[in-house]
Write a structure and sequence with these properties.
This protein is of the alpha+beta class. Helices cover 17% and strands 45% of the residues. Pfam families: CntK_N. This is Diaminopimelate epimerase.
């Protein structure tokens, strides 16, 4: 089967967008084949779909999860198709409402509204303590000043099993002195565990964890990740999170044709 695909680079979180329709039942296999091609260096795959709720565009991730970086990138791609408006409205998997994306094609940047957190909790496992952030279809455990390792992820993974409805989850290793952040993210539907070049929702989780004690005001940090930097912003009023955003650079490639089995 031949497919038209576009490679996007939102702050190093390499995403392939499949531009042709693919049935949901086939997406996991198609994504696995595309991610296995070394020259693509893809960390995830999104599927472009027909809008269903009046949005400017619709994109569904390979495991039905929400991905902030992919949403930012798809927002910029949609703006490019529509003649470069400063703002587009995007429908995306893992989110129950239309997401607003601010775009700047000339600068090659975009900023996406993010889902508000359902809750934040302090958790402890083994010798580690962290902040568990539930963002709806995705949750992250933010660990401060812990050496990144899959062993720590494996130890922490049971914490996610009691959260219903998760399409993806990750452990975010955050150095609070340098703001270097290393994300390790799992998508169960595709059985993928990836050290991501950058992670938008993980960046937001870090900002939320770091600003837990803020009652009113805006908290914004730029998190330096293995392949790029993402700026995450949380706005609080009366101790409640009322708005959240992530932003940063996006590079869009040109569409190309590739072939997958099946």
């Amino acid at each position: 089967m031949k497919l038209n695909v576009l490679r996007a680079d939102p702050a190093g979180n390499i995403t392939l967008f499949v531009l042709d329709p693919v049935e949901k039942s086939r997406r996991a296999d198609v994504a696995a084949q595309l991610m296995a091609v070394p020259e693509y260096q893809a960390e995830q795959v999104g599927f472009v779909c027909t809008p269903q709720e009046g949005g400017d565009g619709r994109m569904e991730m390979m495991g039905g999860e929400f991905c902030g970086n992919a949403t930012r990138a798809f927002g910029l791609l949609t703006a490019k198709k529509l003649g470069a408006p400063a703002q587009v409205r995007i429908e995306t998997s893992g989110c129950d409402h239309i997401v607003t994306v601010d775009t700047d094609l000339a600068a090659g940047t975009s900023r996406a509204e993010m889902p508000l957190p359902q809750w934040l909790r302090s958790v402890q496992f083994g010798e580690h303590q962290g902040t568990l952030v539930h963002l709806g279809g995705i949750a992250h455990l933010v660990l401060e000043n812990v050496e990144p390792s899959q062993a720590v992820f494996d130890q922490a993974e049971p914490l996610f099993q009691d959260i219903p409805g998760l399409d993806a989850y990750g452990v975010i290793f955050l150095d609070t002195n340098t703001l270097h952040m290393t994300p390790l993210v799992k998508v169960p539907a595709t059985n993928t565990l990836v050290w991501e070049g950058s992670c938008g929702s993980g960046s937001l989780a870090s900002a939320l964890a770091q600003s837990r004690d803020l009652t009113d005001g805006t908290f914004s940090r730029s998190y330096i990740q293995p392949a790029g930097t993402v700026t995450a912003t949380a706005v609080r009023e009366g101790g409640k999170v009322v708005k959240t955003y992530i932003g940063g650079p996006v590079t869009l490639g040109e569409p190309f044709e590739t072939e997958v089995k099946g």
